[in-house]
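REVIEWER CHECKLIST
Item 1: Sequence provided? yes
Item 2: Single chain? yes
Item 3: Sequence as submitted:
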Amino acid sequence: MEEREVTLAEVLDARERRVWIQNELIRKYDCPVISFTMNIAGPVKVTALTVRAFEKGMRMLQKALQEAEITVNKEYRISEHTGYEAFLSVQADAKRVKDICVEIEESIDIGRLFDMDVLGTDGVKLDRKKERSCIVCGREGRYCASRRIHSAAEVASAMHKLLQTHFLQEDEERTAEQAVCAMIEEVCTTPKPGLVDRNNNGSHEDMDIPLFVRSALSLKPYLQTCFRLGYEYRDEPAAMTFPHLRNAGLEAEKTMYEATSGVNTHKGALFHFGLLTGAAGRLWHAEGTYDLTEITDTVSAFTETVLGRELKELKEVHTTGEKLYREYGITGARGEAMEGYPSVREIAMPVFVRALEAGHDRNEAGALALLQLIAGTTDTNMIRRGGKALADEASSKAQALADKEKVSEQDLLDLDEYFIENHLSPGGCADLLAVTYFLYDLTRG
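Item 4: Structure as written out by the authors:
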C-alpha cells in the first residue's frame, strides 16, 4: 500500500466533497446521515493500520445498525489518500443513531480514532454528550487541542502506537484461536486410520474427542505467548528465539497434562504450533497477512542450528524420537521443523487444496491429506507402537489406497480396522494434518 503525505489543499477539497455528499444524501432520502471518517493526525492519512481500523469500524457499524433493525437507504464509500470515508443514509431517529455511534466509539480502544458524525435532516451535526479525552495525556481533548499542548508528531506517534498495539493483540489472539481450532478439527476429522475420530477411539483406550478438545483449549494461552515471543525477539537472529519457545513449551506440557489427567494428547502438536505461532509473531505486520513459505522458512530458521547440533551431538537417548534417530537416522518432528515442513508443503497441502477445489468438504479433504501423509512419511509413533517392519507395511497399504483413482469412505474404514487390529496410530501424521489446517487458514486470511 502506497503511503504519501497529503497537502492542505487536498484536505480542504476532501472536506468540501464530504459536505456535498452529506447534503445530497439528506436531500435525496430526507433521513439522517452517518459520516464516518478516521481521526488521523499528521500528513499521512492512509496506512495499512488506518485502513484495518476503518474496515473494523465499518463492520461494527453495520452490525450495530442491523441489530437495531435500522434500514440503510444508501451506503457510499471513498478511498483516497486524504482518508477512507463512508456515508450512510439511515431510516431512524438521529439521536438514536448518534447513541449507537458513540457506543461504538467508546466500546474499543481504537474507537478513539473513529469519527462517526450523525447529521439530522436539517443538516446539523449532533454533538456528543461526553467530551473525548486526549490521546496523548488523557486530559480533555478539546483543552489540549485548543492550546496545542502536544505536537502533531506526538499525536501521530500516539495514534500509531494505539493502532499497532490493538491489531497486534488482535492477531495474537486470532492466530492462537486458529491453532486451537486446527487441533480440534484434526481430531474430529473422520475416518482416520488408527486415530481418535467421530467413529471410534482408534488404537487408543485412554483418549477420546472430549479429552482432545479440553487439551487443545487449555493450550491457547501458551500459543499466544509463543506469538508474543516471536514478535518480541523479531530483531534478533531467529535461532535465538528457539530457547524461549522451548521454555514456554515445557510449561505448556504441564498445562496439557493437568487438563488431561496425565494423558499425552498434544505433545507433538505443542512442538509444531509453538514454532508456527512464534513464526507468525516474528513475521507480523500491519496487514496481518502471511505467506506459507515465509512461515515455514522461519520455523526452519528457528530450529535448524539448535536441533541440528543436538542431533549430531546426541550421546544419551531419552525419547523414542532420539532412539529412532540413532537406529535409523529418522529425524521425525524435529526434521519436519528443521526443513520447513516439507511433508505439509509437498504432500498434505497440495492434496488438501486439490480436494477442496474438486468439491470435497474440509473433512473429506483432510482425510485424503492424512492418507497421503501416512503413505509418504515415516511416522515415529507407528514405529514405536508396532516396530519398523509393521509400520512400513501399514504405510505401503496406505500408499496402495492413495494410488487409487478414487478413495471411498469404506476404503478408509477398512484401513482403520487394519490399524486398530495392529495397535497402530499415526500420531505424527495427525499432527501434520493439524498443521495443514492451520497453515491453510492462516495464509488465506
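Item 5: Key structural point noted by reviewer: The first helix runs from residue 8 to 29.
Item 6: Recommendation: ____
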